[in-house]
Amino acid sequence: MLETIAFSLLNGLLYGMLLFMLSSGLTLIFGMMGVLNFAHASFYMLGAYFAYTVGLVTGFWAALFLAPILVGMIGAAVERFGLRHVHQHGHVPELLFTFGLAYVIDELVSLFWGTVPVPYRMPESLDFTLFTMFGIDYPAFKVFILAVSVVMFVALYILLKKTRAGLIIQGSLSRPDMVSALGHNVPQVFMWVFAIGCALAGLGGVVGGIHLVTEPGMAFLMGPIVFVVVVLGGLGSVPGALIASIVIGVLQTLALSVDFSLAGLFSGIEVSRESFFSTLWYMDSLRLAPVLPFLLLVLTLIFRPRGLMGKREA
Amino acid sequence: MSALQQRDKSTKPTATEGTRPRLRLGRFWPWAVVVLTALVLPQVFTSGHSIDMLSQMGILVVFALSYNMLLGNTGLLSFGHAVYFGLGGFCTMHVLRMINDAGTGLPLELLPLVGAFSGLGFGIVFGAVSTRRAGVVFAMITLGIGALVHSSALMFTDFFGGEGGLFGNRVEAPSLFGVDYGPSENIYYLIVGWALISAIAMFALRRTPLGWMANAVRDNPERAQFVGYNPQMVRFIQFSLSAFFAGLAGGLFILADEIITDETVGQIVSGQVLLATYLGGIGYFFGPVFGAVLVTFLETSLSSYTEAWVLYFGLMFIAVVMFAPQGLFGLLHQQVVAIRAGQWKGTTLLRLYLLATALIAVFGLVCTVELAYHYFGSWDPSAPLNLMGVSVTATNALPWIVSLGILAAGLALMTAHARPRLHRKTSAKSSGGEQ
Q1: In this model, does residue B16 exceed pLDDT 70?
Q2: pLDDT of res. B432
Q3: Is A96 in contact with B274 (Cβ distance < 8 A)?
Q4: Residue A279 touches partner B, C-beta closer than 8 Å
Q5: B285, B286, B281, B315: which is closest to B298 by C-alpha?
Q6: What are phi and psi of B386, to 5 degrees?
Q7: Other C-beta atoms within 10 Å of B366: how many?
């Protein structure tokens, strides 16, 4: 039992950090520009596919940098030639634009790479056991994912809180007219924010595509969960996104690995298998796992709309 | 909130359309046209396949109209409307199965009401939670509820039937008028009847005080509240009523298909109704009707012609969001208004020129996409492809260059020449008129 919990915590942390890599970009875009980017998980998927294809030529380590840059460039183009023109009509068309974009990207991905998973694997230089716990090997690659996400968090935090660029970015959201009067090109700031957000999602895809599976359904699987993280963490709060990611990651992994049900917990009480309530009573946590994040999302929006660490209401 | 106000600049026609003080008979000709077409079409296209398609159109029309009660009338963007459609469908299915087991019970004609009232019930429960706020928060709560319901569909297998879904048999149910509902043509007319009833009901709802209040809450919630209405209450009532009609559409879906799976409450269906409604045009009552018919038609017919239909769909949606936020029906309606106001005079050629450039761009795009699908998708990319009547080889560079050239030329002419010229001309005209 102890080892199950220890491993679940570790794997949950890992999954949570992966979620963070995706959601930090989204929370940046959402918090700064007010655009709820529906296509964000699609950019994550693009990151994985680009890394696979680029990696065939250059190897994994170059792809680790090239793929996010490519995704960021696509993001910049999307902002420059699409979102910027829709912006004048308000937030709802912006949302709908990214909604349509998600359809298009998903379809293009299955066009170019096919509908079956591509063989995107970890590099050999990371394919070894880092440590052994309770007699089970823990691969170095998983620790590498953790390291990448920690580096990303620190870099993002420094960029936003300690640099001049972060100051301009934050100013552009609340007082765009002031910032532009000071001589900064606000639309260009937005373009960069969007590009950085997409590149972060792409980076998540580069490592996430190996850890999970690189297939055209991966965006669809991740999309809603990323929204949960952003809302739970609080609008535009990068530390909030970090905490929310880990909470959801651990929660879901624990529910999957620890066998738990109400019937098991209160084993003394008998509930008839016939009654309607029995479905819930005998429900094991394995089947409950996919529902948990969304339950959390709805509860957060009802009881604490500004999330864990957000300063404003969503 | 500012988002909603801004959005409504693009859907202004609602306001002008709505403030007409009394009903005029001349305004009802679209109804006559729609009803007549609906009645005549199955006599023209008699194949089982096309009648099934027409039934699906009728169902999506009701669903899209109910969706527009939220998006168009109240300014609420929902990403989980399939929940009420699907849950209404599941409840109807359970009642149908009970009727099948008992051999008697509720007549088939009234079964959609089961869906409607269960939709209303779920709408009241979930609406109480989700309509507290508008805008992006509302969109996200509906997304969350949609994902919640969809992922619990595999938990509660008794109700949702698990992976395989649930079956029923409409023929064994009793009929109010003794009609045999075996042939799909009969079920089609039943669907048309219900669609007509619900469309009239929804149209009438727009003209009640509740409808006006919904518009007021959409345009300016603070002011509506200041005048003495509770915006949250108005949203809640509109939401519940919208769920009622969505559930009715779900009930109709059961009658047509006799099978329902967990997909019905999922994201894809929610996206489909959003697509249909927005493509048609959210500022007009007939916009969603147009959109629903178009989307169903494209889905069923386009998918038999080309593998790339989902891509065309997505691109069409993006194009509408970018260039025609008032929707396709709105675009047509604007032209009619412009012709009546005499704005087409002197710009007819220019407008046709703009249309031609757009069509050239679309043609180039279709050629490119078809080439790409052939090149990446087929077993043998070098096999000859029949592209617009010309046999080409996708592995050669020439067809690519020609297709991309046509696309680029069309786009460049449209954005750099035709659109600015038309814009200059029309704006010069209107400013001249003011002076």
Answers
A1: no
A2: 46
A3: yes
A4: yes
A5: B315
A6: -85, 100
A7: 18
